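Case study 2.
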Amino acid sequence: MRKSFGRSLALSFLLAGSLHLSASHPASAMEAEFGDFQRIMLMPLQAQVKRADAILNRKYKKDFNPATYESNMENSIPFYALASDATFAAYRIAAARPELLAGYEVYESCRGGVPRTLLECFFRGGARGEYVDLAASCPVCSAEAVTLFLWDEAGVPSSQFTGGLRFLYDPSLREPPPL
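Prediction:
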């Protein structure tokens, strides 16, 4: 309960600041971008996944389909990416937009280690080619990838990405202060 209260309180301050800004200044592109930033931040993961899937299907029609026994594994998403809708969307995002994920930190330890970039959760060494299964078992990696993708597709300035990801996924922000 404490986590959700703190997050709700912080989001209330963000929203209040946004409302004050829009009431005192005419609408601008910056306000619209901040609105998209907040809307995506507040959107449940399943809704984010549904939106990301629609964009991927419309805009990135490459052969990012799940691997099958008969298919060529080289251009296919590995079978372990089918663990959930979010994981499958995240692996498709990594395949379609590796440069987007390469520039951002991971906020979760994966199997005792921390990859240097979010892309390393999907590809060995952070270079497109050989898939790894880290993100398939880590909901934070998948959620970070989906959120980043939606912010980028909405035209949100990349300068807001790091703070937003940290706010949503950094475990040190969810821990109560020491007594």
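The two ends are 18 Å apart (CA to CA).
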